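Render this sequence as a predicted structure.
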Amino acid sequence: MVWKSEDAYPVVVYGASGYTGRLAAEFLREYGIPFVAAGRSAQRIKEALEHVPGIEDATYEIAEVEHTVEALTELFRGHRIVSNFVGPFARYAPPVMEAALAAGCHYLDASAEQPFMLRAADEYGPQFAQRGLVLAQNVAYLQGVAEIATRVVLETEGIDTLTIGGYGGAVPTVASTQSFFMIVTDQAYQLVERELVPYDGINPEQVTVPFASGVVTTSHWGGGPLPIWLRNDPRVRNVRSTYAMANQDIIKKVEELERAYKVSLQWLPVEARNATLDALAGQQQSAMPPRENRHVHRALDWCHGRGNTAAATCHIFSTAGYQQTGLMHAYAATRLLGNTHHGTGFRSPCELFGHRELFAALQSYGYVSMKVDRVSA
Protein backbone atom coordinates (compact mmCIF):
# COMPACT_ATOMS: atom_id res chain seq x y z
CA MET A 1 0.00 0.00 0.00
CA VAL A 2 1.29 3.50 -0.86
CA TRP A 3 1.09 6.04 1.97
CA LYS A 4 0.44 9.71 1.38
CA SER A 5 3.03 12.05 2.82
CA GLU A 6 0.60 13.22 5.49
CA ASP A 7 -0.03 9.59 6.40
CA ALA A 8 3.49 8.84 7.63
CA TYR A 9 1.88 7.25 10.71
CA PRO A 10 -1.77 6.66 9.72
CA VAL A 11 -2.78 4.66 12.83
CA VAL A 12 -2.69 5.69 16.48
CA VAL A 13 -2.66 2.78 18.93
CA TYR A 14 -3.98 4.31 22.13
CA GLY A 15 -3.18 2.21 25.17
CA ALA A 16 -0.11 0.75 23.47
CA SER A 17 1.55 -0.25 26.74
CA GLY A 18 -1.30 -2.62 27.56
CA TYR A 19 -1.56 -6.30 26.73
CA THR A 20 -3.83 -5.98 23.69
CA GLY A 21 -2.40 -2.68 22.50
CA ARG A 22 1.02 -4.19 21.99
CA LEU A 23 -0.56 -7.10 20.09
CA ALA A 24 -2.13 -4.55 17.73
CA ALA A 25 1.33 -3.05 17.29
CA GLU A 26 2.68 -6.51 16.48
CA PHE A 27 0.17 -7.08 13.68
CA LEU A 28 0.42 -3.55 12.31
CA ARG A 29 4.10 -4.34 11.91
CA GLU A 30 3.12 -7.59 10.12
CA TYR A 31 0.94 -5.62 7.70
CA GLY A 32 3.62 -2.98 7.22
CA ILE A 33 1.47 -0.14 8.58
CA PRO A 34 3.32 2.66 10.39
CA PHE A 35 1.75 3.70 13.70
CA VAL A 36 1.95 5.97 16.70
CA ALA A 37 2.10 4.08 20.01
CA ALA A 38 0.35 6.38 22.47
CA GLY A 39 -0.53 6.42 26.14
CA ARG A 40 -0.02 8.22 29.41
CA SER A 41 3.58 7.06 29.92
CA ALA A 42 6.18 7.08 27.16
CA GLN A 43 8.51 5.00 29.31
CA ARG A 44 5.92 2.27 29.85
CA ILE A 45 5.18 2.19 26.12
CA LYS A 46 8.87 1.91 25.28
CA GLU A 47 9.30 -0.97 27.72
CA ALA A 48 6.16 -2.74 26.45
CA LEU A 49 7.12 -2.48 22.77
CA GLU A 50 10.50 -4.03 23.50
CA HIS A 51 8.60 -7.31 23.97
CA VAL A 52 6.79 -7.12 20.60
CA PRO A 53 8.15 -9.72 18.14
CA GLY A 54 9.86 -8.08 15.17
CA ILE A 55 9.51 -4.55 16.56
CA GLU A 56 13.03 -3.72 15.37
CA ASP A 57 11.81 -3.38 11.79
CA ALA A 58 8.46 -1.75 12.52
CA THR A 59 7.88 1.90 11.61
CA TYR A 60 6.49 3.72 14.63
CA GLU A 61 6.91 6.57 17.05
CA ILE A 62 5.94 6.93 20.71
CA ALA A 63 3.68 9.68 22.07
CA GLU A 64 2.87 10.50 25.68
CA VAL A 65 -0.53 12.13 26.11
CA GLU A 66 -2.99 13.15 28.81
CA HIS A 67 -6.39 11.48 28.81
CA THR A 68 -8.36 14.61 27.89
CA VAL A 69 -10.36 15.50 24.79
CA GLU A 70 -8.09 18.47 24.08
CA ALA A 71 -4.79 16.59 24.38
CA LEU A 72 -6.06 13.56 22.47
CA THR A 73 -7.48 15.73 19.67
CA GLU A 74 -4.12 17.39 19.24
CA LEU A 75 -2.42 13.98 19.10
CA PHE A 76 -4.90 12.42 16.67
CA ARG A 77 -4.96 15.34 14.24
CA GLY A 78 -3.23 14.43 10.97
CA HIS A 79 -3.71 10.69 11.46
CA ARG A 80 -6.52 8.55 10.04
CA ILE A 81 -7.40 5.76 12.47
CA VAL A 82 -7.53 5.47 16.24
CA SER A 83 -7.37 1.96 17.73
CA ASN A 84 -8.37 2.36 21.37
CA PHE A 85 -7.47 -0.24 23.99
CA VAL A 86 -7.98 1.80 27.16
CA GLY A 87 -10.76 0.15 29.16
CA PRO A 88 -13.16 -0.31 30.76
CA PHE A 89 -14.58 1.53 27.77
CA ALA A 90 -17.71 2.88 29.43
CA ARG A 91 -15.41 4.78 31.76
CA TYR A 92 -12.56 5.84 29.50
CA ALA A 93 -13.69 5.75 25.84
CA PRO A 94 -15.94 8.86 25.52
CA PRO A 95 -13.04 11.38 25.45
CA VAL A 96 -11.25 9.19 22.91
CA MET A 97 -14.34 9.04 20.67
CA GLU A 98 -14.85 12.78 20.93
CA ALA A 99 -11.21 13.45 20.10
CA ALA A 100 -11.23 11.05 17.13
CA LEU A 101 -14.33 12.78 15.79
CA ALA A 102 -12.83 16.24 16.25
CA ALA A 103 -9.60 15.15 14.53
CA GLY A 104 -11.41 13.45 11.63
CA CYS A 105 -10.27 9.90 12.45
CA HIS A 106 -11.98 6.54 12.15
CA TYR A 107 -12.43 4.97 15.59
CA LEU A 108 -11.95 1.29 16.54
CA ASP A 109 -12.01 -0.37 19.95
CA ALA A 110 -12.28 -3.83 21.50
CA SER A 111 -15.35 -3.18 23.67
CA ALA A 112 -18.09 -5.76 24.25
CA GLU A 113 -19.80 -3.58 26.89
CA GLN A 114 -23.42 -3.53 25.73
CA PRO A 115 -24.73 -0.56 27.74
CA PHE A 116 -21.92 1.65 26.52
CA MET A 117 -22.39 0.45 22.95
CA LEU A 118 -26.03 1.54 23.10
CA ARG A 119 -24.91 4.94 24.32
CA ALA A 120 -22.18 5.22 21.66
CA ALA A 121 -24.64 4.29 18.89
CA ASP A 122 -27.00 7.09 19.90
CA GLU A 123 -24.57 9.81 20.95
CA TYR A 124 -21.65 9.36 18.58
CA GLY A 125 -22.80 7.15 15.70
CA PRO A 126 -24.71 9.85 13.76
CA GLN A 127 -21.86 12.34 14.20
CA PHE A 128 -19.29 9.92 12.81
CA ALA A 129 -21.59 9.07 9.90
CA GLN A 130 -22.08 12.76 9.12
CA ARG A 131 -18.30 13.16 8.89
CA GLY A 132 -17.96 10.06 6.70
CA LEU A 133 -16.11 8.25 9.50
CA VAL A 134 -16.39 4.79 11.03
CA LEU A 135 -17.25 4.12 14.68
CA ALA A 136 -16.56 0.40 15.17
CA GLN A 137 -16.66 -1.25 18.59
CA ASN A 138 -16.05 -4.92 19.39
CA VAL A 139 -13.22 -5.28 16.89
CA ALA A 140 -12.14 -8.20 19.03
CA TYR A 141 -12.21 -11.95 19.50
CA LEU A 142 -14.76 -11.87 22.35
CA GLN A 143 -18.17 -11.79 20.63
CA GLY A 144 -16.52 -10.64 17.39
CA VAL A 145 -15.83 -14.22 16.29
CA ALA A 146 -19.31 -15.18 17.47
CA GLU A 147 -20.65 -12.48 15.14
CA ILE A 148 -18.89 -14.20 12.24
CA ALA A 149 -20.60 -17.48 13.19
CA THR A 150 -23.93 -15.67 13.44
CA ARG A 151 -23.62 -14.08 10.01
CA VAL A 152 -22.76 -17.49 8.52
CA VAL A 153 -25.91 -18.95 10.08
CA LEU A 154 -27.99 -16.11 8.63
CA GLU A 155 -26.85 -17.10 5.15
CA THR A 156 -29.52 -19.83 5.43
CA GLU A 157 -32.85 -18.34 4.42
CA GLY A 158 -35.77 -18.60 6.82
CA ILE A 159 -33.81 -18.34 10.09
CA ASP A 160 -35.08 -15.72 12.54
CA THR A 161 -34.07 -16.93 16.03
CA LEU A 162 -30.46 -17.09 17.19
CA THR A 163 -28.83 -18.63 20.26
CA ILE A 164 -25.17 -17.67 20.48
CA GLY A 165 -22.53 -19.01 22.82
CA GLY A 166 -18.84 -19.18 23.47
CA TYR A 167 -16.27 -20.86 25.69
CA GLY A 168 -12.77 -19.51 26.17
CA GLY A 169 -9.63 -20.59 27.93
CA ALA A 170 -7.73 -17.30 27.92
CA VAL A 171 -6.43 -15.60 31.05
CA PRO A 172 -8.22 -12.23 31.09
CA THR A 173 -6.24 -9.01 31.33
CA VAL A 174 -6.72 -6.50 34.13
CA ALA A 175 -8.92 -4.26 31.95
CA SER A 176 -10.98 -7.23 30.74
CA THR A 177 -11.57 -8.32 34.33
CA GLN A 178 -12.66 -4.79 35.24
CA SER A 179 -15.13 -4.89 32.32
CA PHE A 180 -16.43 -8.29 33.46
CA PHE A 181 -17.04 -6.94 36.94
CA MET A 182 -18.86 -3.87 35.60
CA ILE A 183 -21.65 -6.03 34.15
CA VAL A 184 -23.45 -6.00 37.48
CA THR A 185 -23.88 -2.20 37.40
CA ASP A 186 -25.89 -1.75 34.19
CA GLN A 187 -29.00 -3.23 32.62
CA ALA A 188 -28.34 -5.87 29.95
CA TYR A 189 -30.66 -6.81 27.08
CA GLN A 190 -31.54 -9.66 24.79
CA LEU A 191 -33.61 -9.34 21.61
CA VAL A 192 -37.13 -10.77 21.94
CA GLU A 193 -39.57 -10.35 19.07
CA ARG A 194 -37.44 -7.52 17.66
CA GLU A 195 -37.45 -5.60 20.95
CA LEU A 196 -34.61 -5.18 23.43
CA VAL A 197 -35.87 -6.90 26.58
CA PRO A 198 -33.94 -6.64 29.87
CA TYR A 199 -32.45 -9.63 31.67
CA ASP A 200 -33.24 -10.07 35.34
CA GLY A 201 -29.75 -10.04 36.83
CA ILE A 202 -26.68 -11.70 35.33
CA ASN A 203 -28.62 -14.96 34.71
CA PRO A 204 -25.97 -17.67 35.20
CA GLU A 205 -27.03 -20.97 33.69
CA GLN A 206 -25.61 -24.41 33.00
CA VAL A 207 -24.63 -25.28 29.44
CA THR A 208 -22.93 -28.19 27.74
CA VAL A 209 -20.05 -26.99 25.57
CA PRO A 210 -20.22 -28.59 22.11
CA PHE A 211 -17.24 -30.79 21.22
CA ALA A 212 -16.01 -30.66 24.81
CA SER A 213 -16.72 -32.70 27.91
CA GLY A 214 -18.58 -31.45 30.92
CA VAL A 215 -21.13 -28.83 31.85
CA VAL A 216 -20.06 -25.26 32.67
CA THR A 217 -21.70 -22.21 34.18
CA THR A 218 -22.21 -19.35 31.76
CA SER A 219 -23.72 -15.87 31.79
CA HIS A 220 -24.98 -13.25 29.37
CA TRP A 221 -21.88 -11.17 30.29
CA GLY A 222 -23.73 -7.89 30.12
CA GLY A 223 -25.85 -8.84 27.10
CA GLY A 224 -23.05 -8.60 24.56
CA PRO A 225 -22.90 -6.80 21.20
CA LEU A 226 -24.95 -9.27 19.12
CA PRO A 227 -28.44 -8.05 20.14
CA ILE A 228 -27.25 -4.52 19.34
CA TRP A 229 -25.79 -5.37 15.94
CA LEU A 230 -28.86 -7.37 14.90
CA ARG A 231 -31.72 -5.35 16.37
CA ASN A 232 -32.45 -3.64 13.03
CA ASP A 233 -31.90 -6.70 10.83
CA PRO A 234 -35.31 -7.50 9.27
CA ARG A 235 -34.49 -11.23 9.20
CA VAL A 236 -33.99 -11.49 12.96
CA ARG A 237 -36.64 -11.73 15.69
CA ASN A 238 -34.76 -13.18 18.67
CA VAL A 239 -31.14 -13.07 19.86
CA ARG A 240 -29.75 -14.49 23.08
CA SER A 241 -26.02 -14.62 23.75
CA THR A 242 -23.99 -16.23 26.55
CA TYR A 243 -20.33 -16.87 27.25
CA ALA A 244 -18.51 -19.31 29.55
CA MET A 245 -14.92 -19.27 30.70
CA ALA A 246 -12.62 -22.15 31.54
CA ASN A 247 -11.76 -20.25 34.71
CA GLN A 248 -15.13 -20.81 36.36
CA ASP A 249 -13.99 -18.88 39.42
CA ILE A 250 -14.62 -15.64 37.51
CA ILE A 251 -18.35 -16.31 37.09
CA LYS A 252 -18.54 -17.27 40.78
CA LYS A 253 -16.94 -13.95 41.68
CA VAL A 254 -19.37 -12.10 39.42
CA GLU A 255 -22.32 -13.83 41.12
CA GLU A 256 -20.96 -12.80 44.52
CA LEU A 257 -20.44 -9.27 43.26
CA GLU A 258 -23.99 -9.06 41.96
CA ARG A 259 -25.31 -9.90 45.43
CA ALA A 260 -22.97 -7.37 47.03
CA TYR A 261 -23.97 -4.72 44.50
CA LYS A 262 -27.68 -5.14 45.20
CA VAL A 263 -27.10 -5.01 48.95
CA SER A 264 -24.59 -2.19 49.32
CA LEU A 265 -22.44 -1.14 46.34
CA GLN A 266 -25.21 0.45 44.30
CA TRP A 267 -25.69 3.11 46.99
CA LEU A 268 -22.08 4.30 46.82
CA PRO A 269 -21.08 7.43 44.87
CA VAL A 270 -19.84 6.55 41.38
CA GLU A 271 -16.15 7.18 42.09
CA ALA A 272 -16.20 5.11 45.28
CA ARG A 273 -18.14 2.35 43.52
CA ASN A 274 -15.67 2.23 40.63
CA ALA A 275 -12.74 2.12 43.05
CA THR A 276 -14.35 -0.80 44.88
CA LEU A 277 -15.03 -2.68 41.64
CA ASP A 278 -11.45 -2.09 40.46
CA ALA A 279 -10.07 -3.36 43.76
CA LEU A 280 -12.17 -6.52 43.51
CA ALA A 281 -11.09 -7.02 39.91
CA GLY A 282 -7.48 -6.57 40.99
CA GLN A 283 -7.87 -9.40 43.48
CA GLN A 284 -8.92 -11.64 40.58
CA GLN A 285 -6.30 -10.40 38.09
CA SER A 286 -3.67 -7.87 39.17
CA ALA A 287 -0.85 -8.37 36.65
CA MET A 288 -0.39 -8.58 32.90
CA PRO A 289 -0.84 -12.24 31.90
CA PRO A 290 1.82 -14.02 29.86
CA ARG A 291 1.56 -14.20 26.08
CA GLU A 292 -1.08 -16.73 25.03
CA ASN A 293 -0.06 -20.29 24.19
CA ARG A 294 -2.00 -21.60 21.18
CA HIS A 295 -1.91 -25.14 22.56
CA VAL A 296 -3.51 -24.01 25.82
CA HIS A 297 -5.69 -20.95 25.24
CA ARG A 298 -8.26 -22.44 22.92
CA ALA A 299 -11.82 -21.25 22.38
CA LEU A 300 -15.06 -22.32 20.76
CA ASP A 301 -17.83 -20.01 19.55
CA TRP A 302 -21.13 -21.11 18.09
CA CYS A 303 -24.49 -19.95 16.81
CA HIS A 304 -27.64 -22.04 16.53
CA GLY A 305 -30.28 -20.59 14.21
CA ARG A 306 -33.89 -21.67 13.77
CA GLY A 307 -36.83 -20.79 11.60
CA ASN A 308 -40.09 -22.66 11.08
CA THR A 309 -38.57 -25.25 8.75
CA ALA A 310 -34.95 -24.16 8.47
CA ALA A 311 -32.02 -24.50 10.84
CA ALA A 312 -28.28 -23.94 10.81
CA THR A 313 -25.41 -24.21 13.26
CA CYS A 314 -21.94 -22.76 12.91
CA HIS A 315 -19.05 -23.64 15.22
CA ILE A 316 -15.80 -21.71 15.04
CA PHE A 317 -12.80 -23.35 16.69
CA SER A 318 -10.02 -20.94 17.53
CA THR A 319 -7.03 -20.21 19.69
CA ALA A 320 -5.30 -17.18 21.25
CA GLY A 321 -8.21 -14.75 21.40
CA TYR A 322 -6.17 -11.69 22.35
CA GLN A 323 -3.85 -12.27 19.41
CA GLN A 324 -6.92 -12.47 17.19
CA THR A 325 -7.98 -9.07 18.52
CA GLY A 326 -4.64 -7.50 17.58
CA LEU A 327 -4.86 -9.05 14.12
CA MET A 328 -8.44 -7.82 13.62
CA HIS A 329 -7.38 -4.23 14.34
CA ALA A 330 -4.52 -4.41 11.86
CA TYR A 331 -6.77 -5.97 9.21
CA ALA A 332 -9.42 -3.31 9.84
CA ALA A 333 -6.76 -0.63 9.37
CA THR A 334 -5.81 -2.02 5.95
CA ARG A 335 -9.45 -1.95 4.85
CA LEU A 336 -10.06 1.57 6.15
CA LEU A 337 -6.85 2.94 4.67
CA GLY A 338 -7.68 1.31 1.35
CA ASN A 339 -11.23 2.68 1.50
CA THR A 340 -12.65 -0.82 0.90
CA HIS A 341 -14.99 -0.85 3.90
CA HIS A 342 -18.78 -0.75 3.71
CA GLY A 343 -20.57 2.24 5.22
CA THR A 344 -19.82 4.75 7.95
CA GLY A 345 -21.02 5.59 11.44
CA PHE A 346 -21.78 2.98 14.11
CA ARG A 347 -21.32 -0.42 12.48
CA SER A 348 -20.11 -3.86 13.46
CA PRO A 349 -16.82 -5.29 12.17
CA CYS A 350 -18.70 -7.81 10.02
CA GLU A 351 -20.89 -5.10 8.51
CA LEU A 352 -17.85 -2.99 7.70
CA PHE A 353 -15.47 -5.61 6.41
CA GLY A 354 -17.58 -8.70 5.64
CA HIS A 355 -17.87 -11.76 7.88
CA ARG A 356 -16.27 -14.10 5.34
CA GLU A 357 -13.40 -11.66 4.80
CA LEU A 358 -12.77 -11.29 8.54
CA PHE A 359 -12.78 -15.04 8.93
CA ALA A 360 -10.31 -15.40 6.06
CA ALA A 361 -7.97 -12.87 7.71
CA LEU A 362 -7.98 -14.89 10.95
CA GLN A 363 -7.73 -18.19 9.08
CA SER A 364 -4.70 -16.98 7.12
CA TYR A 365 -2.77 -16.86 10.41
CA GLY A 366 -4.05 -20.26 11.53
CA TYR A 367 -6.25 -18.94 14.33
CA VAL A 368 -9.67 -20.28 13.27
CA SER A 369 -11.51 -23.13 11.58
CA MET A 370 -15.24 -23.55 10.96
CA LYS A 371 -17.90 -26.27 10.90
CA VAL A 372 -21.37 -25.53 9.47
CA ASP A 373 -24.50 -27.73 9.47
CA ARG A 374 -27.70 -26.72 7.71
CA VAL A 375 -31.29 -27.85 7.30
CA SER A 376 -32.86 -25.83 4.47
CA ALA A 377 -36.54 -25.02 4.20
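Summary. The two ends are 44 Å apart (CA to CA). The longest strand covers residues 298-306.
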